[in-house]
C-alpha cells in the first residue's frame, strides 16, 4: 500500500493521544481520513492502534513496543491481521544531541534524523533552563529518513507552524508501505520526548 503524501494532525484529549492521518489532495489540501490513531497514556508497553474511521470498529494497523519502558525500544508495525510489516527504533546514544531513528521494512533499511542540528540542540537546552523551560515554545523540527544503502530520501516529516501538532509527510520511495510510514510519522510526535 503506497501513499506518496499525507498529513498527521494531533487531537487534544484527556486520557488518549489521538491522531488523524489524512490524505493529501493534489492541490496540497487535506483529503479524506486514511486512519485514526490512538495511544493510551501510561501504558508499560507502548502501543498505538490505527482505525479505519471515527467509529473505531475496524482496526487497520498498529505498532507496539517489544520492550517495556525502554528509551531505545524497538517497535513492530502490524497489519490488521497481526502480520509484521516493518519496525522502527530510536538510537538512544545518537539521539542525545540529535534525534535519530532506524526504520526497516523488507528490502529497505533507513535512518532518520532531525534536519537541523542547531534546532535539535536548542530544543534540549530549552528544556533544562530554569524558568523558561516551562514556557511552551513550538520548535519547528523536521525529519529526513534516507536509505542506508543508497542515501536516497525515503520519508520526510515536516512539522507545520500550528498550535496543535501537525505534520506534512512525504514518501518518495514506493518500497515504504503507507502503514509503516504513518506509524513512524505518528511515533515521531508520540514518542519523541522519550
Describe the overall structure:
The protein has helices at about 90-95, 115-130, 180-190, and strands at about 5-10, 15-25, 30-40, 45-50, 60-65, 75-80, 85-90, 100-105, 110-115, 140-145, 155-160, 165-170. It is mostly beta strands. It has one domain (about 5-190): Tubby Protein, Chain A (Alpha-Beta Barrel). The protein has a twelve-stranded antiparallel beta barrel with strand order 1-2-3-4-5-6-7-8-9-10-11-12. The longest helix has 13 residues, at about 180-190. The radius of gyration is 16 Å and the shape is globular.
Task: Name the helix and strand elements from N-terminus to C-terminus, one letter apiece.
Answer: EEEEEEEHEEHEEEH
**Strand share of the residues?**
35-45%
State the domain count.
1
CATH superfamily: Tubby Protein, Chain A
Q: Using only CA atoms, what is the Rg?
A: 16 Å
Number of strands: 12
Shape: globular
In spatial order, strands of the major sheet run 1-2-3-4-5-6-7-8-9-10-11-12
- On the 0 to 100 scale, the average pLDDT is 83
Distance N to C terminus: 29 Å
